[in-house]
Amino acid sequence: xxxxxxxxxxxxxxxxxxxxxxxxxxxxxxxxxxxxxxxxxxxxxxxxxxxxxxxxxxxxxxxxxxxxxxxxxxxxxxxxxxxxxxxxxxxxxxxxxxxxxxxxxxxxxxxxxxxxxxxxxxxxxxxxxxxxxxxxxx
Length: 138
Prior knowledge:
6% strand, mainly alpha, Arc Repressor Mutant, subunit A, elongated
């Protein structure tokens, strides 16, 4: 199963935008992330909708931060990316008449919900300026 790395990739991009302090094109970001510029634009547009980044078209244009990193949390970015769950552990419902399967799913679901609530609470406490600490631009 493939991991969803959008959160870590966008955090990476946001710290770079902070450090570079200039507009960065989707092509440049795509090279940095080893992906397609269309994927970058699609993902960055989710952040733009929430007011975390802005984009300028044309020569000299590109993506810039619209808010300082100290005003953005990990939770903000997680929610902007519309990630439904932190965990990819799936519950089975192939045999939903089976009482054992129901008990297993209930136990797993309770643990995952508790763990996710704790992670999301912590995400809300971490601002992105903490990620840029100790980083020295090249």
